Amino acid sequence: MHVLAVDYVHILHAGSNNKNAFKPLIAAEYTGVEVKLVESFEMGVSNKTPEFLKMNPMGKVPVLETPKGPIFESNAIARYVARLKGDNILYGSSLFEYALIEQWIDFASLEIDTHTSRWFYPRLGFMVYLPLVEEAAIAALKRALGALNTHLALNTYLVGHSVTLADIVMTCNLCMGFCCIMIKSFTSEFPHVERYFWTMVNQPNFRKVIGEVKQAETVVPVQSGKKPAQPKETKPKAKEESKKETKKEAPKLKVQEPADEEEEAPKPKPKNPLDLLPPSKMVLDDWKRLYSNTKTNFREVAIKGFWDMYDPEGYSLWFCDYKYNDENTVSYVTLNKVAGFLQRMDLARKYAFGKVLIIGSEPPYKLKGVWLFRGQEIPQFVLDECYDMELYEWTKVDINDETQKERVNAMIEDQEPFEGEALLDAKCFK
Ligand SMILES: N[C@@H](CCC(=O)N[C@@H](CS)C(=O)NCC(=O)O)C(=O)O
């Protein structure tokens, strides 16, 4: 019977933690094409069988089985998955957008992946480690990240106004860097790349495939004493020997894997230190409810209610001021930036309330806000986990200063004009 490719369950040969396999798996989440990872894949064994070598003579993964035959090379597989269903959202809406998507896919492969690998693999002993070569790889990677950063200063996505295949390939390639070698002090030179990467990996369709992503905390030390990989011999090797060599899978990414049934029961999560603070008379949810339900007389009802409830011992108020306002030249990119910030603050929902104003009737727009946090300081876990925090200047509100108090009120109320300027929008975190 002839099976239509759109109805076919495609089998993807790769391990479950392979960033190249993530590309088609994420594309499949967007297009609804059925792609399943092959069962019991063992790197260095499954990809060296005669049957596998018929699918990819390189013996490399990923490989996708389709009704017409196998496809290897992860970008080609991802393109196939993206285009299988005629009307799809991953390939842009014009020939020009299509070309830009291809441009960024090539860039992600040749300028990001190549240089990240040239930095990372020699440190693992997969290639000869030479300090001068590493220096050149890092310089080339920085040049590429600089260019990407410039593009992302004005664009939420690589092409157009939604996720395309270019974002999928770029994010998977950046994933190896962020998870394995590009520590915070390295990536903070590229704040827009950081914002882009964390926004992408937290999109539900990415998260389903990749899981939770954690940034590398240290640069892998050079594996001294490890012999560099030898060039492959042309004559076939004895089974055991060849197994050893081909087991060189790309390193495991530091993502949270699905729990193994045989593993011990997970330890109870340690309490958030904010839960250990002395109880407060202010109930944050009551304030959030009052804010949401007040439709008229906002000053008299909500603002007055806020100060009646406010507990200056259990909570603190903070003004935030975006450091890079001159980059806010495109309205929807600026709005997306704020939306992403509030989305990433989700982890603090039990402990915070915030208002961010997007100020100005024309670009560059200014971002200013006020946040209420449990405790006297900005919670450490928020500073650690939400990278947007460092994009703002933070100043504690002195509530004994009436001018500052009035500024808080104006922000909570979205008062317009605000400090003499119109508001493009105001976003609330509650
Ligand atoms: N350009 C290829 C790279 C494939 C690749 O290098 N795969 C590695 C695992 S990520 C592999 O199979 N290595 C086994 C080997 O070198 O024999 C793609 O994007 O699919």
TrEMBL record:
Pfam families: EF1G, GST_C, GST_N
Gene3D superfamilies per the UniProt record, alphabetical: 1.20.1050.10, Glutaredoxin, Translation elongation factor EF1B, gamma chain, conserved domain
Compositionally biased region (Basic and acidic residues): 230-257
Family matches, as InterPro entries: EF-1-gamma_plant, EF1B_G_C, EF1B_G_C_sf, Glutathione-S-Trfase_C-like, Glutathione-S-Trfase_C_sf, Glutathione_S-Trfase, Glutathione_S-Trfase_N, GST_C
Positions of the UniProt region annotated as Disordered: 220-277
Sections of the chain in a coiled coil: none
Keyword terms: Elongation factor, Protein biosynthesis
SMART domains per the UniProt record, alphabetical: EF1G (SM01183)
GO molecular function, one term: translation elongation factor activity
Location of the EF-1-gamma C-terminal domain: 270-430
Residues in GST N-terminal domain copies: 8-89
GST C-terminal domain ranges (all copies): 94-222
Domain of life: Eukaryota
Task of the protein: Probably plays a role in anchoring the complex to other cellular components.
Subunit text: EF-1 is composed of four subunits: alpha, beta, delta, and gamma.
Protein name (database record): Elongation factor 1-gamma
Organism of derivation: Amborella trichopoda
